[in-house]
Design goal:
Layout (H helix, E strand, L loop, with lengths): L1 E8 L6 H15 L5 E7 L5 E8 L2 H10 L6 E4 L4
Antiparallel strand pairs: 1-3, 1-4, 2-3
Helix pairs in contact: 1-2
Length: 81
Amino acid sequence: MTMIIVERRFPGPISDADLMAFGTRQAGCLDSHRVTYRRSILSQDRRRMICEYDAPDAESVRRVQHEAEGPFDSIWIGAAL
């Protein structure tokens, strides 16, 4: 599996309810694309977020984001240093 990073920006601070709703929608898509959610880091002002996934490729994560209606700015392959 490959580490995939998703960068997100929100027009205003994202609420806990919106984060939970996206998480629920996303959960239904992960297995079908062989994607595993690992973790997220939310900025203190709640306007930016980085999410980490393990997946066969970046396209699999992109499909999950589209199906779950998850906004994102970029998706890229990462590596732990």
